[in-house]
Amino acid sequence: MVQVELAILFNDNFGMKRLHNAKSVTCILLFNKRGKGAFRHFKVVVADNFVISGSANVSRNSQRVLDEAAILTTDSAAVRRAREFIDRICTEPVRAEYLEKCKQIYRPPHSKRQGASGKDHQTRATHAKLWIVNLGDYRIPDRELKRYSQGRARAEKMVKDEARSTTDCFHYSHKPRMATELELGDWIIQIVRYDYGEILVFPPGRLLYIDHYVRNMKTGTERWVFHLEVPQHGKKMPWKEFRAASKSALGNGTKTVPRTKPVRDVQAADSLLSLWTAGGRIARH
């Protein structure tokens, strides 16, 4: 077994902060000295007061191609046991001869990439923490209000910060593409165009759940309702003000209201979210 001290930057897809400021990072890499490759798939990282155990390698393949899983815990007993595990298995010094042997038995992972252009190479899509949703001011038809109210009542019970938050929602008369990508807790900024011409941008809300029901029994068509937790005293921002403030995040070409789309770049998403305070007030930078 080999203990290797590394300065590690973890993939943000795990939702973890980068660890380059950690005082000590220990990564355990397991090699089969018989030349048969790794015989344990899990990896363990202990840094300061937490431990991470998961499937990801410190590799480009893990970062961009493979679906990996990991657990992060600050439980003191788990951290202590992980350190004891590392101390127990790290009994040999790493010398030049052993590193040379590792290089000899290493084989690059087999991949389904075809061609140098990478057209057939499927990379893992980065999950978007924020969606910009372009909407019109459409009302729920009266004949659907009873069923719609049932979903709204359920959403109200799911609010986490009852003292400062309330519920809001928007809906589609079909299943939109984002319904398959959104996850509970994702941020959503609504841009609503009203019939009288004004365009307002709502403060960010977090997805509570997605409701859908059949709205026409004859055709089988559905209504898709997206319920959000939003600040009680949130302030809407005029579109022109939002456009000017979001140029760096959405690009200088944002002259018209953007179509519904995910904001996959983490820095861009954070920049847009910071246009409002935690209480939904418009931030003054």
Molecular structure report:
The protein has helices spanning 60-64, 76-89, 96-105, 145-157, 239-245, 247-250, 266-273; strands at residues 2-5, 25-29, 43-47, 50-54, 70-73, 130-136, 165-172, 187-193, 199-201, 205-214, 222-231, 237-238, 261-263. It is of the alpha+beta class and 285 residues long. The strands form two sheets. Strands 6, 7, 8, 9, 10, 11, 12 and 13 form an eight-stranded mixed beta sheet that branches. Strands 1-2-3-4-5 form a five-stranded antiparallel beta sheet, covered by helices on one side. A hairpin with a 5-residue loop joins strand 8 and strand 9 (199-201). Residues 1-40 and 113-118 have low confidence and may be disordered.
Task: Please supply descriptive tags for the structure shown above.
alpha+beta, eight-stranded mixed β-sheet, five-stranded antiparallel β-sheet, 26% strand
**Which structural category fits the helices and strands?**
alpha+beta
User: Could you tell me the mean pLDDT?
Assistant: 79
Cα gyration radius (Å): 25 Å
Helical segment tally? 7
Poorly predicted ranges: 1-40, 113-118
Number of strands: 13
What percent of residues adopt helix (DSSP H or I)? 10-25%
Quick one: biggest sheet? 8 strands, mixed
> How many separate structural domains?
2
| Secondary-structure element series | EEEEHEHHEHEEEEEEHHEH
Shape: elongated
Work out the strand percent: 25-35%
**N-to-C span:** 52 Å
